[in-house]
């Protein structure tokens, strides 16, 4: 009867898969074996399988380190092989499967996958990276009060772009090291699309801050946007770089969000002084082109200011009670 | 040796005359002069010193409020004591203060009636010779001759301009005329023989008020005085002439009263500057001392005009925005004195003018003086691509109503030409 033997590395990675039609199969480090294992902890003649007409029987050939069925500590001698058995030899493993072994249901290639691959398209990738560099350079120019020449902007812009490219590169490296497909360019494409979305959300936030008064109570909704974007980025990074279940991917992305935003929140809180003598207010001002909201009149503004006195008086009373 | 000394004295006979007179005055008045010390209870050492003088036979002593402010603010932390010309020390009790005019009345126990300083009925005449008494830098009581130069012009609450060295430690000491009547109290100096005195009538008023109805609580008395003073100040300013002056393409209000002074600066000499900027600011040239890090009663207005045809509109406003982050209160008050600021911001276009602003108003409350606040307003015009006007004011220690009236008038006064 035919048997399929899979060689599995120390790190549980599938190294090879072979199908045999003969009745005797030998496994070991020696070159005369049917399956040659390069693990130094495996003996030249380590394991032998034999078909007795009805069953496959597996036996250790008196090896130095022995052969053990998964979950057992007894050396394998004339063990009747069941489909799916895993036997440890040295620091490696072999798995025996019969042709009748059931396989998982086939997964259809989702349109989502092809959408993700679009991010890797050279044109899309070049476009999103250029856009990122362009916005980055523009912001560097804005923050510089003095006149800046093109080269003065170019160097930090390239630095910024390379710096941000470290993130997808790092993910690709990790997936490569964990024996997954690196998919470097896909990671790059996806990450830069999201970096651009984050720039845009930043600009959007500024426009909203600029146009609304402090009476607008839904302003906190804006702070959700970067959270959602970051979650999307991490989720896709996991999707592209690693084979994991949907549930696990959600958990990993959520944990990263929690670490990143929670961490920076804690750092901010720890820097908060006990008493801040400076007034804190929204300082966003932009060019007149970004005004969409109508202006209030003086009376409304004075009325709104009246409420501040009540608040201040209340907190003075509360604090002097302490 | 004695003869040489006498010779020297004869050479400077005019000087020696003044010195003799000063000596005479000093001898006469010395028993009623005191060094006032604030003793920190925990360490038992003096934490601040000043001078004081007796104004009644039953032991009332006048000094500056700022000399005993530590006790007025934290009565559990300090005690007040005096040191007289014979080196005797004893405790004093705080009776009444005038925080606006920086005066305080303390009392010592007296076994029998004592000599005291008489307060003048008339202000001195300009150029009149006066003698300032006090204990500068804990060096011992001295007398400093000087001249009366009228009331300080730029002062909302009257101060005498005295030409003579008033040094720290002399605060609270009396300034007398040749008839040894008190015409002022040492209060401040701007160095180089320029000293400032509180006029005698302020002390007289405080003394008479104390005799009629002594205050029940110093804190309440201070709160009432601060409230009254801000009312008087803001009302005067609101009723004064608000002159519109041109700054760049904007019109800004300045207040035409002597105690609000304006200054200006611009970078128009720098041809290569990216942004042309002009700044004008006006402020009240005095404030009220409450404690070492808590001043109030100040008023400040600032205008900043920026224009640029060299940079884009987005960058122009971005640079302007960064200036907003530097806003800080003009008052060092801390957690014990005030709450944190509460702010409101909005886009505002006054109906009467043609300027569209992003405006911010902030306020914080005083913890010990109810219904008094610090307020801050800052607005930036956002209706032109290449030029903008920032208008700003802060007032310390105002009531809600007066500050809002000021706010409305200020907002409506700023406009484009």
Distance between the termini of chain A: 85 Å
Form type of chain A: elongated
Number of strands of chain B: 25
**Helix count, DSSP H or I runs of 4 or more residues of chain A:** 7
Distance between the termini of chain B: 77 Å
Query: How large, in whole angstroms, is the Cα Rg of chain B?
Result: 26 Å
Average pLDDT reading of chain B: 87
Uncertain spans of chain A, ≥5 residues at pLDDT below 50?
none
Percent in helix of chain A: 40-55%
The main sheet of chain B comes to:
7 strands, antiparallel
Extended strand count of chain A: 10
> Which sheet architecture does the biggest sheet of chain A show?
5 strands, antiparallel
Which strand order do you get reading across the main beta sheet of chain A?
A: 2-1-10-9-7
> Treating each run of at least 4 consecutive H or I residues as one helix, how many helices of chain B?
7
Structural class of chain B: alpha+beta
Multimeric status of the protein: heterodimer
Uncertain runs of chain B are 1-15
**Mean pLDDT, all residues of chain A:** 90
Helix content of chain B: 10-25%
Query: Which two chains have the most extensive interface, and how many residues on each?
Result: A-B, 51 and 65 residues
Strand content of chain B: 35-45%
SSE order and pairing:
The complex is a heterodimer of chains A (322) and B (417).
Chain A: E1 3-8, E2 14-20, E3 24-28, E4 35-36, E5 47-51, E6 56-60, E7 67-69, E8 79-80, E9 85-89, E10 92-97, H1 111-118, H2 122-143, H3 150-177, H4 184-211, H5 224-241, H6 246-271, H7 298-321
Chain B: H1 2-11, H2 13-29, E1 33-40, E2 46-54, E3 60-63, H3 65-73, E4 78-83, E5 89-98, E6 103-107, E7 118-119, E8 129-134, E9 142-151, E10 160-163, E11 174-176, E12 181-191, E13 194-199, H4 200-212, H5 218-239, E14 242-247, E15 250-255, E16 260-266, E17 276-284, E18 288-291, E19 294-296, E20 299-307, H6 313-324, E21 342-348, E22 357-365, E23 373-381, E24 387-398, H7 400-413, E25 415-416
């Amino acid at each position: 009867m035919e048997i399929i033997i899979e060689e599995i590395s120390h790190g549980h990675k599938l190294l090879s898969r072979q199908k045999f039609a003969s009745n005797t199969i030998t496994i070991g480090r020696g070159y005369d074996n049917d399956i040659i294992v390069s693990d130094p902890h495996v003996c030249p003649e380590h394991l032998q399988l034999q078909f007795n007409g009805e069953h496959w029987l597996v036996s250790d050939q008196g090896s130095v380190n022995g052969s053990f069925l998964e979950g057992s500590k007894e050396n394998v001698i004339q063990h009747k092989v069941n489909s799916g058995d895993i036997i440890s030899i040295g620091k490696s493993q072999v798995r025996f499967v019969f042709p009748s072994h059931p396989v998982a249901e086939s997964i259809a290639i989702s349109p989502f996958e092809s959408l993700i691959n679009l991010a890797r398209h050279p044109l899309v990738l070049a476009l999103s990276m250029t856009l990122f560099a362009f916005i980055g350079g523009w912001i560097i120019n804005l923050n510089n009060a003095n006149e800046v020449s093109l080269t003065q902007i170019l160097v930090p812009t390239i630095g910024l772009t390379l710096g941000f490219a470290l993130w997808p590169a790092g993910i690709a490296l990790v997936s490569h090291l964990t024996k997954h497909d690196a998919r470097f360019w896909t990671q790059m494409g996806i990450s830069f699309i999201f970096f651009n979305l984050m720039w845009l959300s930043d600009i959007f936030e500024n426009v909203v801050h600029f146009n609304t008064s402090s009476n607008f109570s839904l302003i906190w909704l804006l702070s959700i946007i970067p959270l959602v974007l970051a979650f999307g980025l991490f989720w896709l990074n996991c999707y592209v770089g690693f084979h994991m279940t949907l549930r696990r991917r959600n958990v990993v992305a959520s944990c990263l969000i929690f670490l990143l935003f929670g961490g920076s929140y804690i750092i901010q809180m720890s820097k908060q002084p006990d008493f801040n003598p400076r007034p804190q207010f929204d300082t966003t001002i932009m060019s007149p082109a970004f005004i969409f909201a109508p202006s209030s009149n003086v009376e409304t503004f004075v009325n709104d200011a009246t409420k501040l006195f009540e608040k201040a008086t209340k907190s003075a009373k509360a604090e002097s009670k302490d | 040796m004695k003869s040489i000394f006498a010779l020297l004295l004869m050479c400077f006979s005019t000087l020696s005359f003044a010195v003799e007179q000063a000596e005479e005055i000093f001898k006469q008045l010395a028993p009623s002069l005191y060094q006032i010390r604030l003793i920190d209870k925990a360490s038992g050492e003096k934490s601040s010193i000043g001078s004081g003088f007796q104004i009644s036979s039953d032991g009332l002593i006048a000094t500056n409020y700022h000399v005993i402010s530590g006790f007025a603010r934290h009565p559990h932390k300090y005690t007040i004591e005096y040191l007289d010309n014979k080196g005797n020390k004893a405790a004093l009790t705080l009776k009444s203060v005038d925080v606006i005019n920086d005066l305080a009345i303390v009392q010592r126990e007296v076994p029998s009636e004592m000599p005291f300083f008489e307060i003048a009925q008339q202000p001195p005449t300009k150029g009149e010779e006066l003698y300032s008494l006090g204990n500068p830098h804990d060096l011992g009581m001295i007398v400093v001759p000087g001249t009366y130069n009228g009331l300080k012009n730029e002062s909302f609450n009257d101060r005498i301009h005295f030409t003579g060295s008033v040094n720290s430690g002399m605060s609270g000491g009396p300034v007398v005329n040749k008839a040894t009547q008190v015409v002022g109290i040492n209060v401040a100096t701007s160095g180089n023989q320029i000293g400032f005195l509180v006029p005698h009538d302020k002390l007289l008023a405080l003394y008479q008020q104390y005799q009629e109805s002594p205050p029940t609580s110093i804190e309440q008395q201070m709160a009432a005085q601060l409230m009254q003073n801000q009312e008087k100040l803001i009302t005067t300013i609101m009723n004064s002439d608000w002159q519109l002056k041109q700054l760049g393409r904007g019109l800004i209000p300045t207040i035409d009263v002597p105690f609000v002074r304006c200054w200006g600066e611009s970078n128009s000499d720098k041809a290569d500057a990216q942004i042309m900027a002009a700044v004008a600011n006006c402020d009240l040239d005095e404030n009220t001392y409450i404690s070492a890090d808590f001043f109030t009663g100040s008023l400040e207005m600032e205008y900043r005009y920026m224009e640029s045809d060299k940079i884009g509109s987005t960058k122009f406003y971005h640079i302007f925005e960064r200036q907003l982050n530097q806003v800080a209160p003009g008052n060092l008050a801390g957690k014990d004195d005030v709450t944190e600021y509460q702010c409101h911001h909005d886009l505002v276009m006054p109906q009467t003018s043609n300027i569209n602003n992003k405006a911010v108003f902030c306020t914080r409350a005083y913890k010990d003086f109810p219904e008094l606040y610090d307020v801050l307003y800052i607005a930036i015009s956002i209706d032109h691509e290449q030029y903008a006007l920032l208008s700003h004011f802060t007032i310390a220690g105002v009531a809600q109503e007066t500050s809002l009236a000021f706010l409305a008038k200020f907002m409506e006064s700023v406009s484009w030409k």
